[in-house]
Design brief:
alpha+beta, 2 helices, GMP Synthetase, Chain A, domain 3, 79 residues
Length: 79
């Protein structure tokens, strides 16, 4: 999931604007989805893109929805 997020951020040209982007698996949480005609249960993955000017202060980075959609689709299909 981390490699996918990094690849897509680089492809979108956002890798220089984002200082860090931890990709975290919420192993204690289960999420419900739909696959075919039935429910599916899985663990959510959270992205936390952060930008910083001086590595002392930081703010969350606003990612374009198109980039988030690509990351989400790839993680769902490939992980």
């Amino acid at each position: 999931a981390d490699a996918i997020a990094r690849e897509e951020l680089t492809a979108a040209g956002l890798d220089r604007d984002i200082w860090q982007c931890p990709v975290v698996l919420l192993a204690d949480v289960r999420s419900v989805g739909v696959q075919g005609d039935g429910r599916t249960y899985g663990h959510p993955i959270v992205l936390r893109p952060v930008s910083s000017e001086d590595a002392m202060t930081a703010d969350w980075s606003r990612l374009p929805y198109e980039t988030l959609a690509k990351i989400s689709t790839r993680i769902t299909n490939e992980v």
